[in-house]
Amino acid sequence: xxxxxxxxxxxxxxxxxxxxxxxxxxxxxxxxxxxxxxxxxxxxxxxxxxxxxxxxxxxxxxxxxxxxxxxxxxxxxxxxxxxxxxxxxxxxxxxxxxxxxxxxxxxxxxxxxxxxxx
Amino acid sequence: xxxxxxxxxxxxxxxxxxxxxxxxxxxxxxxxxxxxxxxxxxxxxxxxxxxxxxxxxxxxxxxxxxxxxxxxxxxxxxxxxxxxxxxxxxxxxxxxxxxxxxxxxxxx
Lengths: 118, 108
Hints:
Helix content of chain B: under 10%
Number of helices of chain B: 0
Oligomer: heterodimer
Mean pLDDT of chain A: 96
Number of helices of chain A: 0
Largest sheet of chain B: 7 strands, mixed
Low-confidence stretches of chain A: none
Number of strands of chain B: 11
Helix content of chain A: under 10%
Radius of gyration of chain A: 13 Å
Strand content of chain B: over 45%
Low-confidence stretches of chain B: none
Mean pLDDT of chain B: 95
């Protein structure tokens, strides 16, 4: 059974850094791309970007390029989403999803709630 | 980027009713790359339909997808109590992926 388990929620102050994780199991980690999606009450679901664990190729949405970093560690079947300087507007639920190449998001993590507040 | 517009915003229906949800794209792309997701409170989205009309594994046949070009439809033939949720369409053929704003199917 394919499972994606995300790290727990966190509360941070503006300007702080954060890395959240998404660990895959029940499949070969390099078989599916990992996409990251943000959800907020105001803007709904937004695609942040994706990584191909096979070759670590990364693509970002223009809306998030330069503000977040996507990476992975194939040795532990884990993908990451990182911020170097959080803003209050980063407060959201973040989901990872496993995606067959060229496909839709078949499998989802449970979500990680990030709260940024002074 | 492709903008997806869903309608209506909310559908108020009773169990046993049929539901028709619409998704319109701002540009015509391949209908192979249109998906529908269901999301319940506190849960991640769940893939229902891919490629506009393919049912994902384990999805009941009361859910069906159709459409092409810029107009797509998700039909739920007979609503079960567990079907009351928010539904999103998504295009994954053109980068960046984009999602519609969602249609809430609520109990009347």
